[in-house]
Amino acid sequence: MNNLTSTAVIIALFVLMVFARQGELSNIEDERQANIVARQEAEAQEMEDAEARAQAYRKEAEKYKDAVDHDSDPKTITYPVVLDASKSRDPDQGDKLTFSWVQTAGEVVELSSTKGQVVTFAAPSGQYTFEVTATDDYGVSTSVAKTVKIGAEPNASPVVILEVRKGR
Question: Which Gene3D superfamilies match (predicted)?
Answer without folding.
Answer: Immunoglobulins
